[in-house]
Amino acid sequence: YVANHQSSLDLTTFARVYPRKTVLIGKKELAYIPFIGQLYALFGNIFIDRKSTGSGVMGIDQAVNALTVRGDSIFMFPEGTRNLAGRGLLPFKKGAFYMAIEAQVPIIPVVCSSLNPLINFKKRYARSGRLMIRVLPPIHTRGKSMRHLMEIVDETRPLVILLENVPDIMNFGGHNVPEEIAEGLKLRGYVTRYTLLNAAFYGVPQLRERLFLIAFDVRLGVIPQFPLPTHTMELPRGYEGSRAVALKHVKTEGSHFAPIPFHAAELPRSISTEDALSDLPFISDHLRDMAVIRRRKVSDRLPYRDGTTPSNYGRLMRNWYGFSTAGDVTGNVVRLTARDFPIFGRMPRGADYPVALRIAREILEEKIQQEHVPPKAGTAQYKALEQATVPPYDVGKFPNKWWKLDSDAPSRTLTAHLGKDTYSHIHYDGRQKRMISVREAARLQSFPDGFEFAGAINASFRQIGNAVPPLLALAVGKALMTTLKQAIAGAVIGARTAA
User: Rounded to whole angstroms, how far apart are CA atoms 236 and 213?
Assistant: First the structure.
């Protein structure tokens, strides 16, 4: 069962339609809520750590076991987070659908009408009323997954197939999905290769590793090739370990996996965040009057920064054919939390949440000492100062929740929920004391400055985080076209020889 997610009350709202023997899937943070966490675990519900690949796979395996062995039903919210707008749906996470396909059980959508007429969490009021809950017809998964892809291939018979996904798809519930796809395509007359490509090696100012699969009709007489890197850098610690987990189920012999393209040391260095952002508008309005930023729309334009010469990368983003700009640019909106501005300013570049929390404590101590009579810990005045100064997140649970860009290196990966987690990308310029704007996120993803995003700030961030970086897509497309031209040239030579 999959349902729309509006608030923490959904667990009780949908309780009216839970079938017998139903378990819920929720984020691991629920385990730390007193009493509720213990009850949640006691009744056999499943926790998933959304930030840990290993834990996520284990949770999926648990759910598949519950569906196939124990005969339980699973109830979950595929949006992955609450949709406070109360209308429409947020982008779905893939876990629920992977589980249903793996267990070959139907997906049953359940929808609840908007809570907004009854509850307003910001204004803190609630009133009685009725909600409409509707259980929709089941969506059958039997024969889907890889076979569904093969049905499309059989129906359309394309000359070329190109797929992109996260590296974890090579180790999904113990399955190497792209290898299984390659085997299925082989039976249908395709030559397939897949590998990992990191955007930072292709001129994108972002460390973003993704799996790409390319298949050619065997009649073309060519083998898929992947683009050679154009830039180089030393990958941070942890990348090799993440790759090892992803590559665990890649066979040493007989695999369709192509070696990861090597980035030679003599190549130009990868594009840094300063290369990418230094010429964009200097945004500090929020430090004087936050209402200015709140009134600003994604579509509003600001001039490029005066007195700053754009880098080669900046010029490319400004002058991209078909998406060029003149003297100004859109997307100059940011999330606002006044409590954290001073922390952003003091954080060193490359610092994370534990450092930010230590700085917040230092600022709190300074505020206390500035009081005529410094309040003691535990008093109402102390607590008020602490709440206005120190972020409430547990440093043990959220070590990576905050991160300040390193101006000399590419950014970390931009995610689809960037609109809610922009603290993971705080601007490296401490004078601006803010997280990145929509346009800055677009630059880090290599979207040209003339590209316009639909919707408000969260929708724009979501479009950016979900996208394949255009420069990486361009590199893959060029490699694909080169191989196709080789096939055409070979066919021409073959025809002449035959004649």
Answer: 25
- Return the number of other C-beta atoms located less than 10 Å from residue 180's C-beta: 15
**Cα separation, 297 vs 61, whole angstroms:** 43
**pLDDT (tens digit, 9 = 90+) per residue, 366-391?**
999 998 899 998 899 999 999 999 99
Judge whether 60 and 177 are in contact, CB under 8 Å.
no
What is the distance of C-alpha 330 from the center of its chain?
22
Q: How far lies 332's CA from each of 91, 436, 440, 460, in Å? A: 24, 9, 8, 11
Tokens 């830039």 map to which residue? Answer: 231
Would you call 251 helix, strand, or coil by DSSP? coil
Under 8 Å between Cβ of 18 and 3: no
- Long-range contacts of residues 21-24, Cβ cutoff 8 Å, at least 24 apart: 21/70, 21/71, 21/72, 21/73, 22/72, 22/73, 22/74, 22/75, 23/63, 23/66, 23/72, 23/73, 23/74, 23/75, 24/74, 24/75, 24/76
pTM of the predicted protein model: 0.72
206, two tokens:
């972002």
pLDDT tens-digit series, residues 184-232: 999 999 999 999 999 999 999 999 999 999 999 999 999 999 999 999 9
- Tell which wins on pLDDT, 292 or 394: 292
Residue 365: pLDDT above 90? yes
Q: What amino acid is encoded at 194 in this protein?
A: Y
Is residue 318 within 8 A of residue 277, CB to CB? The reply is no
When pLDDT is cut at 50, 70 and 90, the band that residue 54 belongs to is very low
At residue 214's C-alpha, the angle toward residues 156 and 445, to 5°, is 110
Q: Is the pLDDT of residue 121 over 60?
A: yes
Instruction: State the alpha helices, DSSP H only, in 207-352.
Output: 239-246, 273-277, 290-295, 312-319, 341-346
For residue 42, the surrounding DSSP H or E stretch is: helix 36-42
CB 165, CB 193: distance < 8 Å: no
In order, the DSSP letters of 169-222 are GGGBTTB-HHHHHHHHHHHTTEEEEEEEEEGGGGT-SB--EEEEEEEEEGGG--
**What is the Cα–Cα distance from 170 to 172, expressed in whole angstroms?**
6
| Contact assessment for residue 2 and residue 107, using Cβ atoms and an 8 Å cutoff | yes
d(CA 428, CA 455): 27
